[in-house]
Amino acid sequence: MNAFYAELDPKQICLSFEGVRRALFVGIGGGGDVVTASVLALSFERCGGEAVIASIVWERLSVDPVPGPVKLDELIGAELRDGYAIVDSDTYAIRGGKRVVPQIANVAKALERKLYALEIVGGVEGLVNGLRNLVKDLGIDLVVGIDVGGDALALGTEESLWSPLADAIGVAALAGLDRSILAIASPGADGELPKSYVLKRISGLAELGALLGGYIFSKDDCRTYEKVLSVAKSEASSIPLKACLGYVGKVEIRGGSRCVDVDAVNLAVFFLDPKIVAQHSVAKYVAGSRSIDEARKRLHEQCIATELDLEEEVYGSNFSLSLEEARSRIRERVRRICRRTLY
After folding, report:
1. Which of 27, 165, 209, 295 is 20 to 30 A from 110 (CA-CA)?
2. CA 34 to chain CA mean position, Å
3. Taking the alpha carbons of 67, 72, 78, 83 in that order, is the dihedral positive or negative?
4. CA gyration radius for the chain?
């Protein structure tokens, strides 16, 4: 399928999808994935398309002290719809007595436009409902789900995997739509799965027919990154900008708990068929789930710890545990749960 390509012009390089007038770009991992979703969306608009930007709302502990994703009805100043909410620069939530400004609101401020929030508390089925309603209400031709780093491709057995839950729900939801693609942006940028491993997974999925095309971030895209990141916070989405500026080397993120090897490969985006990815990744375990707790339980049954477990462990310790200490504890706890399930 040659539907995805970069259009070359003496003045600009931009992303185009053949036969697509209006595309929805969704950050499926929460946090700063919406930053890269907005960069791809604006590239698509430079090619003459109409772009809509959305994201699930799940902030890192450094921003939101309360474990778990933000519910739509917690968003103050948002316009609620069936399965999604319309967000602007004034949107925020109160979590644990703290005013939390989600990255989607920061991106809305940077771009001076309204964006669309989605939630995953309803599991895969809840997210599918929100996406389908957005597609219907806004006349969307194609949904592009963006994962920065590539842990959406995880099998679940990887020792370096930290946060499989949101991405698994996101990939499974994309697979439930009529026309969608999964965009793996800046391999390894989140400091979880190593870049070499992500590329190996992409090659393996390509053998199965999942690879649809690719894109390389341009100077125009890097200017968008600079504009958005002047307001929004994202360690993973800042990696492509560093690569665009010529940086090569290691960057510590997440309070030093992870390290990213930065080079020109971090400018790459790979487009994959989510239906194939969902059959050959952690997403297969959460398909059809109707709540985030059900999805998490299914991962536990496969001996897979999640970011929700990690956040609850840190929160329960009154933030006295480091991320590494909390991760070690929850992985052992999940292994015990898994052994009881098996035997």
Report:
1. 165
2. 7
3. positive
4. 18
